[in-house]
Amino acid sequence: MIRIALTGLRGHRTRLALSALAVVLGVAFLSGIQLLGNTLTETATGLISSTLEGTDAVVRSTSVQTSAFAEVRQTVPADLVDDVDDVDGVAGVAGVVQGFGRVIGPGGEPIDSGLVPTLVTNWIADPQLAQGALVVGRPPKKPTEIVLDPRTAADEHIRVGDTMSLQGAVGLRSYQVVGIGGLGPTGEDNIGARVVFLSSEQAMEFTGADGQFAFVTLRAAPGVGQQGLADRVNDSLPPGYEAVTGERYVADTQKQAGGALGLLTQLVSVFGYVGLFVGGIIIANTFSILITQRTRELALMRACGASRAQVLGSIMIEATLVGVLGSIVGLGIGVVGVIGLLQLVGNLITLPTTVPTLTPLVVFGSLIVGVATTVAASMVPGWRATRISPVAALGEVAEDRGRGSVTRRLLGMVMALGGLAAGSLALFAIDANARLTLVAGDPAAGTAATAVNLRTVVFSVSAAITLLSFLVVGPVVVGPVGRIIGWPLRLGGGPVGHIAGENARRNPSRTTATAAALTIGVAIATTLAVFVASLVGSVKAGFSDQLRGQIVVSSGLGGATSGGLPEGVIGDVAATSGVDTLARVRFIPATVTGVDGNPTGGGSVSGVDPKPFFSLVKVPLIGGTAASLTPGTVAVDADTARANAWAVGDSISVFYPQVGAVEYPISLLFEGPIGTASFLMPMENLDDVTAVAFRQDALYYISVTPGSDPTVVADRIDGELRRVAPAAKAQLVPQWLDDTVATFNLALNLVYVMLGFTVLLSLFGIVNTLYLSIYERTRELGLLRSVGATRVQVRRLVLAESVIMASIGTSVGITLGVWFGAGLFTVLSGNIAAATIHVPWVQLVVLGLGGAIAGMAAGWWPAGRAARRPILSAIGYE
């Protein structure tokens, strides 16, 4: 049977190569993403290790707020440095300042987009504790001196001796460049962000952290190990601070960097697994067609004494070899692709010039996933092959023209109706705040419960079932859908259009499998398009309805974690002619604990001035007025309060990295204004619990005096901002909203690129199906030519079939995607004001037309082969 299987592979090389192509592309994508992620992680962790190579111990705060990407810790007082320096065994000590800013170009405009802010830190003189190195020049010594990273210096043509400006928490500062240098032992390593070095005192002042370090690094005296140094220092530290070994600190920092990059890799890999699933459908369809074409061959094997197990075994051997070959080729393409990507990414981050390391996990993982996908996809066609009767060897090649068994049709209908019913239940019957507890909490041990939103889970499962039901029930509906889609072709294409429509419908199982591959990609793309369009539309509508002001001033620094609006800006803006009311909004890192022990409301709270804020933001207030939100109290979004059974008068616990947990009574409930966190506090609450570096406002909402032109007032404010904070900008509300939601569209475009991989696989599925069906219909096409059909008509026939298959997949995918996107947004919209469904009709029309065009492109090569077949050889083909 092994010899027979190998002979079968040699006899169907082209057909099986097309099948293996699905595995090749899927494995190439997955292995490439894994290799890219590993390389980025190794580079980031290696840079961290080399930067902190001379650090034997680190003193840091024990008060920390963690998230999926990073952690926020309380700072360390500068006075602690002298105390630590006196500890026996400490040979060197240096405090490290960390903050953010924006480099301002000669023209007064920021030189970067602001998506990755500039890292501001202090230059450390101790060579062993220094986190960077000079390329040219000297370290900063005066408050007006700065060391600039090589990338920024090269991009902006800045040299030693030039002056430059930097905007941060305290506004705009001008510096003289005295050196060019950066992170790492050579000073030329690039982490993607820009880096500037100031003197320690100036770095503290610039970042708003006077007298505070992010952490303190220590160098041990000869003969003192890292653990011994940490133990000695811990004995002298006050409560709230700890000393950890340099190895432990490096490992913690590397874990954070690796976790963020790993999460990104995992998210991107999802599209790779979707692609492999689509590839599995294509493989199953390919083997199904091949088995149908080899009915007589397999029947002869049975007639010669082969058992069902042997027939199945020969097919599994073919599938395994196809999977192995496709996985190996895919892994090779993935490596080549990553090398190219690293060349592009290398413009942003310093990467090794060597070929990415092929770890055993990547190699064997790629082989296992690729082979398992191929074998699993071929199991059902292989099992069907074992049911071929030896008598079939006496007849013509069979072709499955049925719509599936009654059981299959009933199962498909149950799945489709059940999925739609479950989705409707999630949308209209399950409470928006209902949660499903996966793991119960243990109050005695201090562990929180693990819970998920029940509505989201039910709808997600229903969407998956509904999408998969098309694979089962598709043969029943593909006929009517194909007839509707093929109507224009029959109407305008004459006999060719009529035959093409009938060909697409005469084998509904095959057409379903071919169209389903495209359906999945289009459904996901449509879901995201509808979701993002609804989110963007609802956000815009909500702001337009709630915000009474006409102007928004934004920091251009990404919020509090990147500096915010400098403290001195508010006076200049408020004094601008035409400004009537100004309401500040501030975002502070904090965590609120819900009734189930889990964090709720995100990782921040919003600081506001209640009177001007509620005068400019129109939201229903429950249980009081704006005056109810007094210092020492908190206002909670009504949906969040309902989810936690909170009411006015209850107390909640808010954890700040700076001071720990603080209790606040709830003085007011509000119906969710968008653009803020779920918790509002008076600004007076935050000054004592927030580090100075986070005391900047993110936004100003502004209303103009009656009779003033908002455009003129915004221009005046911009003029003031250019003097003190050039990265900030004043915009009319519609302009600000367009800039704000542009991030969603950017993310959506990146997702479309990932989904393009799935669609590409789907188009190969169409190519594969048409190519294989031409072999089946060689005699039929020859007869068409013999009765007068021209080569052009044969080409048009195959192209029309391709368009019909692609249109079926696209139309079903768009229909399902609209339902999924609308439902997903309804489930996740939460407290978004004016949450309404928005269907991006233009995008969907473009998607539909693109599907038809792509289908025609996919059918071009098979159509050409069909048209070029000689008439006599086609008629005599067996």
Automatic annotation (TrEMBL):
It comes from the Bacteria. The keyword Membrane applies. Belongs to the ABC-4 integral membrane protein family. It is found in: Cell membrane. The chain crosses the membrane at residues 270-291, 311-341, 361-380, 410-430, 457-481, 515-536, 750-775, 796-821, 841-861. It comes from Candidatus Neomicrothrix parvicella RN1. One of its GO terms (cellular component) is plasma membrane. This is Uncharacterized protein. Keywords: Cell membrane, Membrane, Transmembrane, Transmembrane helix. Its main location: membrane. Residues 270-390, 753-870 form the ABC3 transporter permease C-terminal domain. It is a multi-pass membrane protein. One of its GO terms (molecular function) is transmembrane transporter activity. Residues 17-234, 512-718 form the MacB-like periplasmic core domain.
